[in-house]
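quick one if you have a minute, typing this from the bus. below you get a single protein, a line of residues and a line of whole numbers that encode the local backbone shape. could you go over both lines and see whether the tokens make sense for that sequence. anything you notice is useful, everything is just below.
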Amino acid sequence: MKLFKKTLLGLLAVCLLFIAFLVFNTLTLKSKQLSFDAIEQIEVDPMSKTNFSNAIKIKTISPENAADFDSLAFDKFNVFLQKTYPFVDSLLEEKIFNSYSHLYKWEGSDKSLKPALFIAHLDVVPVAEENLPNWKHAPFGGEIVNDTIWGRGTIDDKIGVVGLMESVELLLKSNYTPKRTIYLGFGHDEEIGGPNGATFIAQYLKEQGVSLEFVMDEGGTISQGLVAGIDKDVALIGTAEKGFVTVELSVDLEGGHSSQPDKETNIDVLANAIVKLKNNPFPAKIPSVVGKMLEYLGSEFPFTTRMVAANQKLLGFLFIAASESTPQGNANVRTTTAPTIFHSGVKENVIPPVANASVNFRILPGESSTSVLERVKETVNDERIKIEIGGNFGTEPSKISGTETMGFQAIQKTILEVFPGTVVSPYLVIGGTDSRHYGDITEDIYRFGSVKLHKQNIKSFHGINEALPVSEFENAIRFYHQLIQNVSE
């Protein structure tokens, strides 16, 4: 009996010490949030919103079918840039790639400083004909209604192109010269992977021997009410992005008449394979970039969530469990599996001789397209199914950029100067950006735009009723205007 009591007391003591350890780590968790004074807001020319409206009106759509590409629209956008921004056009060196992608060079006064590159894309996704009646205002009307600019590209990503051009034009008008050379790169086909835009710009810079201090692209945003447990606005700076690979599965068995089906048809075999993949997802884990996000947000969380953030190695499983409950959270902790295409059959009474399916995977940093393919083959485990990498394009997960660098800290400082009271954090971009093409000429790529996303508008880009308040557009100009100065000095 005494032994039992001693054992029980020992276990209780261990539990108390463990809890004390967790609480100590929680209470001593240091905030990574910095403090900078808000700057005085610059006056934005009222003509700027008209310029943005005019940019939205130009249908620079990247179609899936190359035959549908409207070169006249992209020619029109070239003219728009030239005429709307005469200082940029006359004072900056410009190169055009494949007729429609632009690279501007703003020579700095200090050649010892490595250049910085700001990129955006001028193309947009199509608007489905059947969705037109659901738009409150024409998707390419560029209408300004109740201090809101409506149309495709207001969020993704003409805000980046016009915001940068407006800010640089403003700086040039004031005779500003940066110490650090600044590049502006605008691709025209990001929405289909950037094969003729960012790819060529990056290759040109590489051939010129340019080594960049950092690249900044779209990707992260200012999140409002989307980070559980934090009421403040949260600026998410993408320091890495997931990879992209599509795996093709095909079955070629004998077909026949539907009145005499075999035990398994091509469709049966392929459907069972898809079910196996969905029932056996990739293992969940906290990648280092997500762990870093928890470090930055930890001090802002309520106590229980802060405890998890402060004790990731011991309590990380709780974060994973909570993340898996939502699509967004799940995408942060595992390589995701999404069947996207299934083709088979042409007639209701004919068993098709062939069945094909495409499954898209978004790859966590630390994994690769090769490891994805191997796992798919192992999971399906059916010699009747041909499995190979396919799709129009693919990319490996990016490198993880630092948070102690000049680039990250300049972005963080600018956010706090222009958007005081905002919480700043690194972040894993679960989609894809043009920035992946620049990995050979820089160690650090950051993905951030000053657009504010919330539950009301988060589905509008690539969706219906994409729009942006005029005030947010003006703040984007202020953000780039200040960031360029912070970076170049």
